Amino acid sequence: MTTAMEIYQAERLDKDNLLSDPTVVNKYHIAADIANEAMKRVLEHTQLGRRITDICKLGDDIILDMTSKIFKKGNTERGVARPTCLSVNNVLRNYAPGADDQTALVGGDVVKMLVIPELGVHIDGYIATLAHTTAINPNPQQPITGRSADVICAAYYAAEIALRMIRPGNRSSEVIDAISRVAAAFNCTPVSATSSFMIRRYLLEAGNELPNAIIPDAEPPAPFDFLENEAYSINIFMSTGTGDIRPYTDVRPTVYQRDVNANYPLKLKTSRALLSEVSKQYGVFPFALRTAVEKDPRARLGLQECLNHGVLMPRDMMCEANREAVAHFGFTVLLLPGSGPMRMTVGSDVLGLPYVHSDKSIEASGVAGILKMAVRNAKSKVPAMKQETVMEM
User: Fold this and answer.
1) Can you tell me the distance from the alpha carbon of 52 to that of 58, in angstroms, rounded to the nearest whole number?
2) Which residues lie below 8 Å from residue 268, measured CB to CB, with a gap of 6+?
3) What is the distance between the alpha carbons of residues 282 and 291, in angstroms, rounded to a whole number?
4) pLDDT tens digit sequence for 285-327
5) Average pLDDT, the chain
6) 37, 40, 127, 16: which is closest to 82 by C-alpha?
7) N or C, which end of the chain has less CB nearby within 10 Å?
8) Closest CA to 255 of 203, 292, 281, 202
9) Closest CA relative to residue 89, chosen from 118, 111, 113, 53
10) By CB neighbour count within 10 A (0-12 exposed, 13-18 middle, 19+ buried), where does 126 fall?
């Protein structure tokens, strides 16, 4: 039997996520504006020789700096909803190395490195996420060709077509089919075990799941119809290989998340200090361990006890199983009542695309006509805020 508390919580959740409420939409707008600015700066600094940890720190610092200047009155939570991560070549998500990690973006005369920055911002729990693929090209006057070009084109076009198909009245299975068709046109494969999700206040994964690939012999997520009043974090992953993934074990996890349903009386002072910092600064959202121990490096000593008792959970890093190249584009879209879909975080028209040339064509997909549909992009709601975060060289 449903309890009165459960009914209240369900009603409160629905009320908190009404996109007919201009206050709710405004918070999504502001989160998106900050995510957009952070991504622009991250891409500017994604250059040959830069340390990955410095680029990740820059993204997080920009988010924290900009969110600290707004909603100062009251107790409005705001900040990082997904830490700035930088995935390289065949790595998928959740790579935000520690401050002492010396891994840098490197290349040679012919090495072309695909780099995928990803980040997220929240204002009062309302989330905006953004991911983009760029490339370190040792000869920038010459386009990237071959399989790297194919996978970038496949992920980009699949994301743009998904954006135009995610609207009330359409069905999730139609979007999945279109993604598959685009992948085939570029001889690429959607990456297994990666998905887009409906988002709600404080929830990065709030029910409706849109997988990039249907895994044979596995139970697929239930198909659904897109409805007004829904928000989605769209993430399209493509691979030049089979799309199979495996754990990335070259390094320890660098991103963690608090399990708000787990409680344990931690014994170590360092463990309690770490959990307290995480609860205060990040709440329910994922965080980079680097930032959680920045103020007090000794708190790192408490990580293992927190993991042993389940109060913190690692966000595992995965990679393409056969070391094939991966591309990823992501954005946030709101299905506004009465006015339809609106893209909140910016796309390649603002962020730009790497200079690529594929000998394959989107026309072969059979869904290229969808690209002719107009897209409504959100206009910035945040006045220019002085942003002084810089990267030390």
Assistant:
1) 10
2) 301, 302, 305
3) 10
4) 999 999 998 888 888 899 999 999 999 999 989 999 888 999 9
5) 90
6) 127
7) N
8) 292
9) 113
10) buried
Instruction: Using the predicted structure, report yes or no on whether residue 349 has a pLDDT greater than 50.
Output: yes
Computed from CA positions of residues 123, 127, 128, 133, in that sequence, does the dihedral angle turn out positive or negative?
A: positive
Structure tokens belonging to residue 67: 């969110």
In the structure encoding, which two tokens stand for residue 308, read together?
């042993």
Q: What is the pLDDT of residue 7?
A: 55
Phi/psi zone of residue 38: left (φ > 0), alpha (ψ -120 to 50 degrees), beta?
A: alpha
Residue 107 burial by Cβ neighbours in a 10 Å radius (0-12, 13-18, 19+): middle
What are the pLDDT digits (tens) for 100-153? 999 998 765 445 678 899 999 999 999 999 999 998 888 888 999 999 999 999
**372 has pLDDT over 90:** yes
- Residue 384 has a pLDDT of 53
pTM above 0.85, yes or no: yes
The residue assigned the tokens 């000998």 is 359
Separation CA 315–CA 145 (nearest Å): 33
In single-letter form, the type of residue at position 1 comes to: M
Q: Of 48, 132, 124, which is closest to residue 84 (Cα–Cα)?
A: 132
